[in-house]
Amino acid sequence: MIKHKHLLLAVALACGGAALAQPAPSPAPPAGPPADREPIVSVTHHSGVFGGQRINYTATAGETFLRADDGTPRAAIFSVSYVREPRDPNRPVTFLFNGGPGSGSVWLHMGAFGPRRVAIPSNGTDDGAPPYPIVDNPDSLLDVTDIVFIDPVGTGFSHALGSTPPADFWGVTKDAQSIAQFIRLWLNANGRWNSPKYLGGESYGTTRSAAVLNQLEGAYNDVALNGVILISTVLDFGAGAETPGNEMTNVLNLPSMAAAALYHGKAQASSVEAFVEEARRWAIGPYAHALLQGSALGAEERATVRRELSRFTGLSEAFLEEADLRVTPSRFYKELLRDRGLTIGRLDARYTGHDYDNAGEEPDNDPSFFGIDGGFTAAINQHLRDTLGFHSDRSYVTIGQVGPWDWRLGGDRDSDVYMNVAPYIGRALRENSGLRIFVGQGYYDFATPFFAAEYALSRTGIPRERIHYEYYGSGHMMYVRDDDRAKLSRDVRAFIRGR
Question: Tens digits of per-residue pLDDT, 334-387?
């Protein structure tokens, strides 16, 4: 998941001239946990029914030390591997993580693809208080692939060791290098170098997927991949940056606003699929044409655009005029259902919440996050500590503050100011004829809008014929909706089998 305000601050800094200068030195962080110990590892054996098949599997929950060239441990990466028994060196293996940056893999692990999941309400309502049901997950992918859930440094139980500063791992490229190093170590330890390999992430985890793909395939000692699974995709941060003067963010958010307006009865259409397709075409056509004219936009065209914008967004023409035809997502969350005294969610616009009062222009909080976080936090701790027997005095970090995050890609000025990792995917597709990309998007997701994902992956140099899209009737974590979790499982299972 992407932490909204911290992300926007980071993107804003990356787009300014000050970002080109080296930051002032920070005080030395306190020493991390001692490095002169062995990794903590727990191995347990289980059985379950996944995809209609009875599968026996071994779960390995534990630390892998990332070491410097001289052998000094620099970080402990926590992961959970689920491997089918008897072991098959030619069976696919899929490496998964979440995003943030600063999020542990709890969401994909306990919500979508792990052998157990937390059963929270499917209809966009609050998860309430414990106990939360933790149930077998027949939608896990263990019938078609072994799975490795990875927590980057600063998330889950992963942390820097000894005198190594955590900031050594906190950046687009630095983070990707550490995950690529972990993957190589895992392949070594498990004898899986010739297995079909898949990489996947959610939200910033899709950014990480592209950056890790570049680390694995962008050098001579390649780790070639069969597929990359992008769930709730964000790749082009420049196009989506909510900063004055950037009109693309308005264009790319418009179809998501249309979907949310239709869901809450503020617009009329035969189906969400038909309405968002109409919104796509209008956004990239008449709406973009109007926005790019700026203050030179004529009165007649302005009136026509304002009327259509009201039809798509469910907002009044008076409000749209005051907003100069440009509605930020945070204003939209507050304004859409203001007449009902409700706000809508950012991660999932199906969720609604009550603010302290109805007068502000932004919600107090995101009801689609506080509506799920309690259940997931309880579930991952119980599963790891009790079911898998991993014992640590550390707290499992579901969402933590890692940073400041280094958003630079290490290129020239322009590539660092306009942060976009989609070209990494394009290069890998051009240079690996067996690589395919899966893209899964929720219609009601404003953290990573579906039209923005489509835009990023339709640019020059990215072969479109090996990119497969699927859409879901929920938001950022589409798997919290039962029907969408089952569909996502079927879709990804078919993607892996389709190699």
Answer: 999 999 999 999 999 999 999 999 999 999 998 887 777 788 999 999 999 999
Contact (Cβ atoms closer than 8 angstroms) between residue 437 and residue 464: no
Q: Which of 355, 370, 385 is the last residue of a domain?
A: 370
Q: Would you mind telling me the total number of residues written for the chain in this entry? A: 499
DSSP state of 297: -
If we measure between CA atoms, which residue out of 250, 264, 405, 431 comes closest to residue 331? Answer: 250
- What is the C-alpha to C-alpha distance for residues 187 and 54, in angstroms, rounded to an integer? 26
- If asked whether residues 466 and 452 sit together in one domain, one would say yes
Instruction: Output the pTM of the full model.
Output: 0.91
Q: Is residue 33 part of a domain?
A: no
Cα end-to-end span (Å), the chain: 28
Count of structural domains, the chain: 2
pLDDT digits (tens, 9 = 90+) for 226-250: 999 999 999 999 999 999 999 999 9
Tell me the residue range of the domain where 366 lies.
254-370
CB 98 within 8 A of CB 399: no
| Beta-sheet pairing, 159-160 with 146-151 | unpaired
Any idea which residue has 């907002």 for tokens? 315
Residue 400: what pLDDT? 86
413 shares its domain with 332: no
Alpha-carbon distance of 168 to 211, in angstroms, equals 16
Q: Is 307 exposed, middle or buried (0-12, 13-18, 19+ CB in 10 A)?
A: exposed
List beta partners, residue 76.
65, 159
* Contact indicator for 391, 385 with CB cutoff of 8 Å: yes
Domain for residue 428, yes or no? Answer: yes
Last residue of one domain, picked from the residues 317, 350, 370:
370
Q: How far apart are CA 266 and CA 232, in angstroms?
A: 25
Residues 190, 44 share a domain: yes
List, as own/partner pairs, every contact residues 114-119 make where C-beta atoms lie below 8 angstroms and the sequence separation is at least 24, other chains included.
114/80, 114/82, 114/140, 114/147, 114/149, 114/383, 115/46, 115/48, 115/50, 115/57, 115/59, 115/82, 115/140, 115/142, 116/379, 116/383, 116/387, 117/379, 118/375, 118/376, 118/378, 118/379
Task: Please tell me the predicted confidence (pLDDT) of residue 374.
Answer: 83
Please compute the mean of the pLDDT values over residues 465-474 and round it to a whole number: 97
Q: Are both 379 and 232 inside the same structural domain?
A: yes
Give residue 34's pLDDT band: very low, low, confident or very high (50, 70, 90). Answer: low
Question: 425 and 461 share a domain?
Answer: yes
- CATH code, domain with 227: 3.40.50.1820
Task: Please check whether residues 139 and 220 belong to one and the same domain.
Answer: yes
Q: What tens digit of pLDDT does each residue of 143-193 get?
A: 999 999 999 999 999 999 999 999 999 999 999 999 999 999 999 999 999
Residue 224 shares a structural domain with residue 264: no
| pLDDT of 25 over the 50 cut | no
Asked if the model's pLDDT at residue 2 lies above 50, the reply is no
